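Table S2 (text version). Query chain:
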Amino acid sequence: MECSRREALSLLGMISCGGSAMAGSILGPDMSASPGRSYRDSNERRELLYRLLGDLPDRERPISARKVSEEEREGYVLEKLELDLNGFEPVPAFFAKPKHVSGRVPVVLFNHSHGGGYDIGKKEFIEGRSYLENPPYAEVVTGLGWAGLCIDTWVFGERNHATELDTFKAMLWQGRVLWGMMMYDSIRAVDYLTSRPEVDPGRIATLGISMGSTMAWWLAALDERVKVAVDICCLTEFHTLLRKNGLAKHGVYYYVPSLLKHFTTADINALIAPRAHLALAGLQDGLTPPEGLDIVDAELKKVYAELGASDNWRLIRYDTGHCETPDGRQEILAFLKAHV
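Corresponding structure-token output:
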């Protein structure tokens, strides 16, 4: 009887009759990467990707901003803002600009990381993080003569009103997806940036590390106004993560219902092409298995070559873990200067 029960469970992809875990069975079959489909049918594919993000607020709802404070810092002016982006709760943000702005300048939407630092959020932009190089990116961006924006995303910083898991569950009951609500705010943050008189709407970049890295490449895939994407340490190939039993390495925010029915990681990133995209990864980083990096790199090289933009895609790997490196920081600066 026991083996019959196990056989029944085995049919559900849970365990084998012998009792060992059936790696990958309940997790679904592998899906062949086909990024060519995404970039050839980019509008349709982009709309599909957006629809997978759950019930989102009206994309055209009016947004607004209130300046809470302004202070002069070393080399730049920092505005603290309260943005109305989604209609559910205010979105605190930092906007940094050079002290003397002449005309419209490029802007970087900085996406903060996770790292379990729910009280940090947008402060990462001005204070840095242990796994980021110094100086913090607010100083880096304004040092280039550009502007920068970082918002507190859901459950982080001043929006840390409930746990990540509780928020995920509550949203799921309501037909919403936590990652979708995060991405909606990021897209509307781009709307806000294009309304700023200091910002050149034709020169928008986005970057971040870890969760912020994933936000960078998703945002660039969904929003063509983003001309340059830089992702640090989170270009994770989904199917490789499944095969490596690595799902627990990413927070629950990361998971989008039905995503793998329609997209691979390379599919999503192909929606960025031919725009400039730099990825940096650590060979010892469990969040981005090297085998998966090989897959994404090979597929995107094909896509960018077919579009005649081979120089616009780069993946640089370092023999390190989940962190930005000094060499990586220099590569990022060079890439931004060349492409923004």
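Notes on Table S2: The first helix runs from residue 2 to 11. Strands lie at 64-73, 76-84, 91-98, 105-111, 147-151, 199-209, 226-232, 276-282, 313-318.
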